């Protein structure tokens, strides 16, 4: 299927980005430019421009004389990223609380009711989707394009790790309680409490991921 766009390299970058996030292009895998050009029915120029975009985003790494490889996220990367994104999303929650109108609170109420329903039913995939919508809503309400940009960039890197922190024992209900604490602070118009609750929520995600990694390692060594 041929890609057609006024900005072809942007469309190619978007296509490859989604394939990376979906795991079709696995972490560490080599991107064969000839094969990609044939598969996407494009020339080398837009492909190389697209690869530059993804390298700049941190989704690919470029090795001189070898080419591009899908980036791999290490435990150290996660240890370094989570405290940063916790600070940033905490600030987003602070600013969202300051800006939220009654209509915004009502819309967030619906999202949190959806989140609670998915948690009660143990629907992890749907919970992730509702969770993402809530985080996006807070970032939108913060109305700070710099925060949104940097958070978005870091989230792309985290998506590479294909994180499954909700599979840690008890994490689903813990995550729900954390979200409700953030929302309660927002409804109370307590900016500082919302910021602290959101920061705690993100840092506990990292703790849950360590639990999942330990459990998986234990199973492998049995």
From TrEMBL:
It comes from the Bacteria. Residues 6-73 form the HTH gntR-type domain. Keywords: DNA-binding, Transcription, Transcription regulation. GO terms for molecular function: DNA binding; DNA-binding transcription factor activity. SMART domains: FCD (SM00895), HTH_GNTR (SM00345). Pfam families: FCD, GntR. InterPro entries: GntR_C, TF_FadR/GntR_C, Tscrpt_reg_HTH_GntR, WH-like_DNA-bd_sf, WH_DNA-bd_sf. This is DNA-binding GntR family transcriptional regulator. It comes from Acidovorax soli.
């Amino acid at each position: 299927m041929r890609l057609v766009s006024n900005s072809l390299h942007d469309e190619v970058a978007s296509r490859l980005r989604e394939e990376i996030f979906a795991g079709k292009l696995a972490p560490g895998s080599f991107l064969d430019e000839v094969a990609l050009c044939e598969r996407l029915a494009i020339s080398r120029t837009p492909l190389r421009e697209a690869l530059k975009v993804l390298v700049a985003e941190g989704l690919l790494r470029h090795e001189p004389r070898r080419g591009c490889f899908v980036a791999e996220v290490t435990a150290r990367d996660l240890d370094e990223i989570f405290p940063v994104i916790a600070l940033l999303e905490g600030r987003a929650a602070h600013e969202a609380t300051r800006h939220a109108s009654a209509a915004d609170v009502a819309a967030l109420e619906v999202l949190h009711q959806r989140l609670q329903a998915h948690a009660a039913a143990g629907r992890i995939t749907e919970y992730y989707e509702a969770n993402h919508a809530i985080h996006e809503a807070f970032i939108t309400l913060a109305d700070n394009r710099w925060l949104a940009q940097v958070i978005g960039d870091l989230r792309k890197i985290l998506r590479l790790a294909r994180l499954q922190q909700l599979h840690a024992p008890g994490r689903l209900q813990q995550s729900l309680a954390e979200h409700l604490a953030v929302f309660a602070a927002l409804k109370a118009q307590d900016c500082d409490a919302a910021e602290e609750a959101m920061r705690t929520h993100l840092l506990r995600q990292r703790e849950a991921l360590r639990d999942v990694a330990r459990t998986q390692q234990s199973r492998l060594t049995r």
